[in-house]
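hi! just following up on the protien thing from before. the input was this:
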Amino acid sequence: MEGSHQLPTSKPLPVLPAVEAAKRLAAFAAVDRHVGLKHKIIGIGSGSTVPYVVDRIVAQGPQANLGRVFVPTGFQSKELIIKAGLVLGDVDQYPKLDVTIDGADEVDDQLNSIKGGGACQLREKVLAEAAETWVIVADYRKNSKLLGTNWTQGIPIEVAPFAYAKVLTNLADMGSPATLPSGKPGLTLRMGKMKAGPVVSDNGMFIIDAPFPPELMAKPEELLHKIKMLTGVVEVGLFCNMARAAYFGNEASRLSLSHKTIDGTVSIRNNDGSAEQLQSVPDVPVMA
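and the predicted 3d structure came back as:
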């Protein structure tokens, strides 16, 4: 993607730092593959990769977006939809979606994922289940074989505020450690930044971050069910057997002689076990 190229309805593509460029590659490729003219009800997820999803959708042009409705997973995506001039909808109005594209904190080799780093996992899961197709977009750092390898903060768990202390005790009994082997804090109630007290989700709930040892993370669906059965738990940031595909933007490389930076590739993993590698993503959207 050269900075001189321009999308049909967007600003010229800026040169981005490596990680941001990787996010943009993944988002653009996923939109090109999964958001076509026939898709009218579209879920927009949360996280740092999602703004590039909205950029690509806007770049498809006014005609493509005519008659489309966009349903957000939270405050961030709602603001992105409004500021992009797209039509905002709600899952109350549109309980069935054509496609939802969302980010992830980590994805394993079976397309199970950890989500909820931004405290939106309940709404994200509702939109994932409501969608005929749910697609993950992320950068190369989120691609792993086993959940908990790269995302060490733990599984985000949304809980009713009055039940958080009891749920913390339950999770500790299940094997979530108070301290990680690295010495960093383990099981904890997530506290806010630039505010006193805990993080409060869009639903008025608290968030617990619960790491578990590899032998438990190796069976994420089983762990999900056990946590979800705890009274006081509203939703668990484990998304199992839900994704149609995951798109990972890879890091760009630099040609040593010319000192020219070239785009990274995009790794795609599908839920049927197949995988592919895109060597490039066009600047101008390709409609599916």
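Helices lie at 18-34, 50-59, 62-65, 75-83, 121-130, 164-174, 214-217, 220-228.
Residues 1-10, 255-262 have pLDDT under 50 and may be disordered.
cheers
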